[in-house]
């Protein structure tokens, strides 16, 4: 169960990172919070319609993730209340985990539908390039999505078959 939660949190973090949170300490610049998405758009050579799908998906995931993040203070309060009493209050923690499970289920559904919309909006090459970016991370640089494999990295022992 923790693995599923961790994977959900990682996907949400990906969308949150791509969307940006506006608190990086830097000025928003020309693209504001869409700066990280702009780099993805450039790498994938997306159309304006495809970009709208990405932005809407990022907004939806960020809103759902924000609701879950808002539970952090409630979690601390419930744990403190459970420990503070004469007897351990398991009921307070049960309520808390039930609420969190419902919010996680909502986040998982938003992630599923958002990723499905992105998948549908992209062509096969773009889907493949986005999958490579997600799998290997943004450190692949601007040399292109397949530069990682052309260097002989990635466990394939040679150039990428698509390169």
Describe the structure concisely:
This protein is an all-alpha fold and 163 residues long.
Quick one: overall form?
A: elongated
Uncertain runs with pLDDT below 50, 5 residues or more? Answer: 21-31, 142-161
Q: SSE order in H/E notation?
A: HHHHHHH
Q: Summarize model confidence as the mean pLDDT.
A: 75
Using only C-alpha atoms, the radius of gyration works out to: 20 Å
- Structural class, from helix and strand content? mainly alpha
Fraction of helical residues: 55-70%
Number of helices: 7
Largest sheet: none
What is the strand content? under 5%
Protein name: Heavy-metal resistance
Description:
The chain has 163 residues and is mainly alpha-helical. It has helices spanning 2-19, 35-44, 48-69, 71-84, 90-121, 124-136, 147-150. Helix 1 (2-19) crosses helix 3 (48-69), helix 1 packs across helix 5 (90-121) and helix 4 runs antiparallel to helix 5 (90-121). The protein starts with a helix and ends in a 13-residue tail after the last helix. The model is unreliable at 21-31 and 142-161 (pLDDT under 50).
Main traits of this protein?
163 residues; Heavy-metal resistance
Please outline the helices and strands.
Blueprint: H1 2-19, H2 35-44, H3 48-69, H4 71-84, H5 90-121, H6 124-136, H7 147-150
Helix pairs in contact: 1-3, 1-5, 3-5, 4-5
């Amino acid at each position: 169960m923790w693995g599923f939660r961790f994977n959900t949190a990682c996907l949400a973090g990906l969308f949150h990172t791509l969307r940006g949170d506006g608190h990086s300490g830097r000025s928003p610049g020309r693209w504001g919070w869409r700066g990280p998405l702009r780099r993805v758009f450039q790498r994938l050579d997306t159309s304006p319609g495809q970009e709208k799908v990405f932005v809407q998906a990022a907004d939806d995931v960020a809103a759902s993730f924000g609701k879950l993040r808002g539970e952090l203070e409630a979690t601390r309060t419930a744990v403190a209340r459970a420990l503070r009493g004469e007897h351990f209050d398991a009921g307070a923690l049960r309520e808390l985990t039930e609420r969190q499970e419902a919010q996680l289920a909502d986040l998982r559904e938003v992630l599923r539908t958002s990723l499905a919309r992105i998948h549908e909006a992209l062509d096969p090459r773009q889907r493949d390039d986005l999958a490579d970016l997600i799998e290997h991370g943004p450190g692949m640089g601007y040399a292109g999505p397949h530069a990682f494999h052309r260097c002989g990295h990635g466990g394939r022992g040679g150039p990428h078959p698509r390169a």
